[in-house]
Amino acid sequence: xxxxxxxxxxxxxxxxxxxxxxxxxxxxxxxxxxxxxxxxxxxxxxxxxxxxxxxxxxxxxxxxxxxxxxxxxxxxxxxxxxxxxxxxxxxxxxx
Amino acid sequence: xxxxxxxxxxxxxxxxxxxxxxxxxxxxxxxxxxxxxxxxxxxxxxxxxxxxxxxxxxxxxxxxxxxxxxxxxxxxxxxxxxxxxxxxxxxxxxxxxxxxxxxxxxxxxxxxxxxxxxxxxxxxxxxxxxxxxxxxxxxxxxxxxxxxxxxxxxxxxxxxxxxxxxxxxxxxxxxxxxxxxxxxxxxxxxxxxxxxxxxxxxxxxxxxxxxxxxxxxxxxxxxxxxxxxxxxxxxxxxxxxxxxxxxxxxxxxxxxxxxxxxxxxxxxxxxxxxxxxxxxxxxxxxxxxxxxxxxxxxxxxxxxxxxxxxxxxxxxxxxxxxxxxxxxxxxxxxxxxxxxxxxxxxxxxxxxxxxxxxxxxxxxxxxxxxxxxxxxxxxxxxxxxxxxxxxxxxxxxxxxxxxxxxxxxxxxxxxxxxxxxxxxxxxxxxxxxxxxxxxxxxxxxxxxxxxxxxxxxxxxxxxxxxxxxxxxxxxxxxxxxxxxxxxxx
Lengths: 95, 489
Description:
The complex is a heterodimer. Chain A is mainly α. Chain A has helices at residues 5-15, 21-38, 73-77, and strands at 83-84, 87-88. Chain A has a domain at 5-43: Histone, subunit A, CATH 1.10.20. Chain A has a two-stranded antiparallel sheet. In chain A, a hairpin with a 2-residue loop joins strand 1 (83-84) and strand 2 (87-88). Chain A starts with a helix and ends in a 7-residue tail after the last strand. The mean pLDDT of chain A is 93. Among the domains of chain B are: 4-257 and 473-477, Amidase signature (AS) domain (Amidase signature (AS) enzymes, Alpha-Beta Complex); 305-380, no CATH class. Chain B has helices at residues 9-17, 23-41, 49-65, 106-114, 156-164, 180-185, 220-230, 274-289, 306-321, 340-351, 354-367, 373-393, 419-423, 430-435, 463-477; strands spanning 44-47, 75-79, 117-122, 169-174, 189-192, 212-217, 260-264, 293-298, 399-403, 439-447, 450-457. In chain B, helix 8 (274-289) links the parallel strand 7 (260-264) and strand 8 (293-298). Chains A and B meet through helix 1 and helix 2 of A and helix 9, helix 10, helix 11, helix 12 and helix 13 of B.
């Protein structure tokens, strides 16, 4: 599976990772090579086989919805790069 | 300098119990050993010497009060993706260089309750993505058996610390082999529990349907003791098994006569080093001499597809899990550009290393419109096929035995620029991971002076049985407590 430069830029945009020119070419070549090794999967017969999302037969594990103390605000914000008045500060989302 | 750092955890427990030495003395011995060899090995990202001595004093008080348990006062290493309240936790990434967790993970909570002594946070491939610990933002860990070689990965720091005497036992995490492969390459015992055996609460996520925390130790008994401490149901992780965990130590010392051991032929491939093949043959002969029924006529035909399945599913899950690193809530942040999206893209460009970017990109692609069915969904279906083959095998065998890694430890730099060559290190550990099965790697001798590991795979939640076989083998072979012959440089 040969990826194009545009494919790589599209993936990087979906993943929200800025790439420099060298990285675009390096990832294009490396990811293409890795995808080639995945081609063999197409030959495995999987007609009528259910996908496994999870190794254990668990579904909708429920627990009581009890109110518990949450992390105090100052502790929750202690690792934040930028805060203001007890909130996380970011640049405007909508211009 | 005392030699207390050479003891296994259960030997040290005996000494503590008999008041032959204190936990403070034991901890000081380990810290002196760390000071001596850490400049060479780099097994730790963060050392917590002061905390360790404080915990050691508390442990000594527990012995005085008669409330000590098997891990009380025992110096441990903790992989740096296991969050520890108030102690920096980086996951080997620049992204979390200054992250101080506001809460404890379930496993660390249990270690603390048991009175264990934390020496430090162990080095690892960034976000556990790698098989050599070279993808750490804090420099590579080196193999105590030969510092020019890698220790394996991603829990390379956890394995090297145990092998070098920088702790007695440690915790690692295994997604596709990250406990077993470094344990093998460093000559230690490493156990990847059944998916759902150990709570993932407070574990920095990589591949959520695959991640498990597990122990690395110098012998099987220590590994069993550690799993006893960390395993069991936790309501904060809905995937943990609600059934009580059996007493694992009950399985140690029992004979293995009549145990049905399957040896799948797909694991004996051309890429395996002759020295590895020879040690596994010898180990199988030991198992047979102990009365196990060793059957070589076993086939798991889809084994070869586990690599592709894993390297589609794990990066896909990682691409979602690592979306949280946006430089807003915590972690590294680049705010130089004038817009929010540019801030996020630059934060991720500068905060993540190459392998993490590569896997996020791979996973993003596999999940993207037009490719989801061909990659992610197909991989999930083949995952079912692999699981069914294991289920069929476990109807006929109690355990399956394979090599842990096709090679012994390799030189630093040998594979770091060839991602697929690095991925091939995991070919023997990936199938059990994909199926969610427990597996242990035990040392089974040396090839060219470097340790070789044997992998024993069990059925779901059958950790007791694989530890029983591992312990019987260890007692018969004598391959235990293999401290690397490392001297200070």
